Amino acid sequence: xxxxxxxxxxxxxxxxxxxxxxxxxxxxxxxxxxxxxxxxxxxxxxxxxxxxxxxxxxxxxxxxxxxxxxxxxxxxxxxxxxxxxxxxxxxxxxxxxxxxxxxxxxxxxxxxxxxxxxxxxxxxxxxxxxxxxxxxxxxxxxxxxxxxxxxxxxxxxxxxxxxxxxxxxxxxxxxxxxxxxxxxxxxxxxxxxxxxxxxxxxxxxxxxxxxxxxxxxxxxxxxxxxxxxxxxxxxxxxxxxxxxxxxxxxxxxxxxxxxxxxxxxxxxxxxxxxxxxxxxxxxxxxxxxxxxxxxxxxxxxxxxxxxxxxxxxxxxxxxxxxxxxxxxxxxxxxxxxxxxxxxxxxxxxxxxxxxxxxx
Length: 359
Prior knowledge:
About 40% of the residues lie in helices and about 20% in strands. The chain is α/β, with parallel strands linked by helices.
């Protein structure tokens, strides 16, 4: 995608120096800044602090972290330690565990003197595969949006939650890839952007959409149900961090409430995600998925500008420490509320997902 006329991926590898460059997403939307990560510890911290975020991007970034670890020491001990260090940074997103397992399996059979090169090339392959998968997701999602436009004969109003754009992947995005493809194909859309407290990832979605020229409006989380009741939402389109084989969707906290409101108002609810986000081992998402609990600091404060100076971003306390805080990062939307799962292989009803995985 482009930022101020320059093409970017959310993570770019420097093959000569064996480092990666990322976009510091904690500085957006006020400041666009790139950082260089030089070792596995820095990669782990970037994932934990959400300087990189989004299930697909987390997985690819972790793969490069393992490659950096192999560059420093190609022993079995270092290989296992890097997996453990990275695995605990964001436990809910299945792409992280999937990528770590894939890199480990690929590297462990290599002679020690080839492990660093093998790991780096494998991480690059994962990055390129993510881009291709996301573009394919966008093409399938375009067909869904176009069909709805042809039925309605007017612009399609789409509600999003969290950020499932190119910032959450290596490029294109998942849910937003569908929107970008529709906009670029001339299908008129308007996006209602949920703020998504407490991290306010809706700000990232709005920043992306503005840069791409897609019509959009930013709304508070609690406005979604009201807008559905009044016919101002035609479909809900979100990403996902983990999906069970029966179609239960784990996504950013608040997604379940949007799905409930959509179901009550007969509005289609879609999740867009790569196949790597589907966890074929899950039979009971509600019991088997670990829901990450994050720091109370995210709830007690918000990041804002000091005056009009975009370089002076600072946290503003909105709740003192006398009141306890509970901060789950994700919730689970049951398959019965999901209209369809959009993957790089097509659009599937939840009941069809297990067969799609096997195929």
